[in-house]
Write a structure and sequence with these properties.
Blueprint (H helix, E strand, L loop, with lengths): L15 H4 L12 H19 L6 H13 L2
Helix pairs in contact: 2-3
Length: 71
């Protein structure tokens, strides 16, 4: 009796968003770097105000961006 070789086929699915690494924002010639720096400083200030309370770096950044841009 001849046995056929069986091959188990598996599909590997990757989550591109999960594996993506975002590069830090770099200053541009238009002076955007100064804006980014002010937002970063304000976000850090908000983080310190939270004193480890509820929130995240993303929330701090979004709030700082609104404050700095005057939105």
């Amino acid at each position: 009796m001849i046995q056929a070789n069986t091959v188990k086929r598996t599909t590997v699915k990757t989550n591109a968003a999960k594996n993506r690494v975002e590069a830090p924002t770099r200053p541009t010639a238009s002076g955007n770097g100064d804006l980014q720096q002010r937002i970063a400083e304000k976000a850090y200030e908000l983080y310190l105000k939270r004193n480890g309370g509820p929130g995240s770096a993303e929330e701090d950044w979004a709030k700082a961006e609104k404050i700095v841009k005057g939105l």
